[in-house]
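ingest -> validate -> predict -> emit
validate: passed (alphabet ok, no gaps, 116 aa)
predict: started
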Amino acid sequence: MEALPKTDRITNEWNRFYAVPRGHHPNARGGFTTTSNLAMMQFKCLDYIDEISPRPILFVAGDHAHSRSFSEKAYEKAAEPKELYIVPDAEHIDLYDQVDKIPFDKLENFFKDSLK
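emit:
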């Protein structure tokens, strides 16, 4: 496999999933999935947090994830009941497919307790 180019931290993380067979899909544009930057810039995910909470919310983030700060901001804005669970030694992309890092017990307990 050809070495991935070194870019910024976030692009490097995405490339370690989407630009290699790990996240490759033959029907995706360019061989890997992409989202328009414009669509991402126009989506203000915290605008509707008050419509989600006070339902129970479990935020899960890797301790090395570029997206951890987004989870922390959402956690701060959410009403109780809420929990922020940080997965040790994990990036954002690790929680896609690294089954040894995905906190299945935490997720199972959350759904069992919250969906009564």
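The CA atoms of residues 19 and 32 lie 6 Å apart.
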